[in-house]
From TrEMBL:
Native organism taxonomy: Bacteria, Pseudomonadati, Pseudomonadota, Gammaproteobacteria, Oceanospirillales
Pathway annotation from the record: Metabolic intermediate biosynthesis; chorismate biosynthesis; chorismate from D-erythrose 4-phosphate and phosphoenolpyruvate: step 4/7
Role noted for this protein: Involved in the biosynthesis of the chorismate, which leads to the biosynthesis of aromatic amino acids. Catalyzes the reversible NADPH linked reduction of 3-dehydroshikimate (DHSA) to yield shikimate (SA).
Self-association and partners: Homodimer.
Binding annotation for shikimate: S15, R16, S17, T62, N87, D103, Y216, Q244
EC number: 1.1.1.25
Limits of the Shikimate dehydrogenase substrate binding N-terminal domain: 7-89
Major enzyme class: oxidoreductase
Reaction catalysed by this enzyme: shikimate + NADP(+) = 3-dehydroshikimate + NADPH + H(+)
Name this protein carries in UniProt: Shikimate dehydrogenase (NADP(+))
All copies of domain Quinate/shikimate 5-dehydrogenase/glutamyl-tRNA reductase, residue ranges: 117-166
All copies of domain SDH C-terminal, residue ranges: 237-267
Catalytic residue list: K66
Keywords: Amino-acid biosynthesis, Aromatic amino acid biosynthesis, NADP, Oxidoreductase
Length: 270
């Protein structure tokens, strides 16, 4: 039987994951089936059970099920445990469900691809929601000199700094705490969706700094436009999307696909 994989979401029709994983499978000559499944909002565990009963070996999980997926796992990777969320489910040969989150490692791989060095870097992360919680462990594992989490609701950033404080130099607060220069600024807020920009001071970027937005689209986000005007190099979230998918593919199939050609094809289709 063909190994089946899917992405669960609600809605999920516009997910690019089926395209990405089909491209990976073509490249590695793996015969797999990968579909998008709209799980019912009130029964994610049932959707996963039904999927595995019909030959499902693993899944990606997107909005709004990442926390629910986390709760149903029998075992978890350390980074998923820290994130409190799961974007990759793996069915073990023993029938147990293992959960991992590959978003953060996807971000770090994409930054590496762009030549960004984390060691010794001064990093600013904007936002303190689920998306940011998922990237802090891999960022701190890169040994930055400092990592400041700044958020509209300061208490949420402070809580993250406490939760991840044993992993490195991390602090948290409101946007009023932000004082440059930084070598790397990552926008993990959903402000771009509303065309908003967090209030940021001038002098945010050090020479040679990189600005990354976890969002992507046909046009640069408001944040990336603002950063570009101030001399920063800009990177959008499309590369992170492909890299997190590649890491999930690796977890399932034991083969690492080449992400560059897939990213190029996706970019053309935006
Ligand atoms: P996600 O899963 O994408 O992280 P989330 O958990 O709802 O979604 O978090 C959204 C993040 O974007 C939060 O940090 C939120 O700030 P608050 O914690 O103060 O709500 C931030 N955010 C959303 N809209 C924003 C805006 N217009 N300006 C600044 N920050 C915004």
């Amino acid at each position: 039987m063909t190994d089946r994989y899917c992405v669960f979401g609600h809605p999920v029709a516009h997910s690019r994951s089926p395209f990405i994983h089909a491209a990976f499978a073509e490249q590695t000559a793996d015969t797999i089936e990968y579909t998008a499944i709209e799980a019912p909002r009130d029964d994610f565990p049932g959707a996963w059970r039904r999927f595995t009963a019909s030959g499902g070996r693993g899944a990606n999980v997107t909005v709004p099920f990442k926390e629910e997926a986390f709760r149903l796992c029998d075992t978890l990777s350390e980074r998923a445990r820290r994130a409190g969320a799961v974007n990759t489910l793996i069915l073990g040969v023993d029938g147990q469900t293992h959960g991992d989150t590959t978003d953060g490692i996807g971000l770090v791989r994409d930054l590496e691809r762009h030549g960004v060095r984390l060691v010794g870097a001064r990093i600013l992360v904007l936002g303190a929601g689920g998306a940011v919680r998922g990237i802090l462990e891999p960022l701190l594992a890169g040994h930055p000199a400092s990592l400041l989490v700044a958020n509209r609701t300061a208490a949420k950033a402070e809580a993250l700094a406490t939760d991840f404080g044993d992993l490195g130099e991390i602090s948290g607060g409101g946007f009023d705490r932000v004082e440059g220069p930084f070598d790397l600024v990552i926008n993990g807020t959903s402000a771009s969706l509303a065309g908003d920009l967090p209030p940021l001071p001038d002098g945010l970027f050090a020479a040679g700094a990189t600005a990354h937005d976890m969002m992507y689209g046909a046009e640069p986000t408001v944040f990336l436009r603002w950063a570009s005007e101030r001399g920063a190099r800009t990177v959008d979230g499309l590369g992170m999307l492909v890299e997190q998918a590649a890491e999930s593919f690796f977890q399932w199939r034991g083969v690492r696909p080449d992400t560059a050609p897939v990213l190029e094809r996706l970019r053309q289709g935006l």
